[in-house]
């Protein structure tokens, strides 16, 4: 199973709103755990294990809530005037260049196109992530030192 298949599986699981899925073959096992259906968190945090095969477990039942889509629609309409700076890769998000340095940007800071806003560590390499737009940071969507997925929104910027 390659990384694209894993990414597609994660997207499928998050859209299906199940809490946990295990996929096993004779030499590969992946467990994807997501928040329960209806929570505000959208992105799955995968846990990958390379182990010997075991008995397959059935996926958890789908839990549905009627009020959740209305709440998500309100949040989306409030943030529609902002532009998201998204992660160009999978890795670990850091707001600082190193633990003893200050953060790259805070809420309320002005950024210009090309300014470094964070770093993402992938395979022991720290990649600087530049802003593609100019504007004011209005929200930081990811906690420091947490995993991020490809195309996951990291910051919201008010371009006006």
Automatic annotation (TrEMBL):
Molecular functions (GO terms): acetyl-CoA carboxylase activity
InterPro entries (alphabetical): AcCoA_biotinCC, Biotin_Carboxyl_Carrier/Decarb, Biotin_lipoyl, Single_hybrid_motif
Keywords linked to the UniProt accession: Biotin, Fatty acid biosynthesis, Fatty acid metabolism, Lipid biosynthesis, Lipid metabolism
GO cellular component, one term: acetyl-CoA carboxylase complex
GO terms under biological process: fatty acid biosynthetic process
Pfam families associated with the record: Biotin_lipoyl (PF00364)
Chain ranges of the Lipoyl-binding domain: 82-158
Pathway: Lipid metabolism; fatty acid biosynthesis
NCBIfam families: BCCP (TIGR00531), PRK07051.1 (NF005457)
Function: This protein is a component of the acetyl coenzyme A carboxylase complex; first, biotin carboxylase catalyzes the carboxylation of the carrier protein and then the transcarboxylase transfers the carboxyl group to form malonyl-CoA.
Full protein name: Biotin carboxyl carrier protein of acetyl-CoA carboxylase
Organism for this UniProt entry: Chryseobacterium elymi
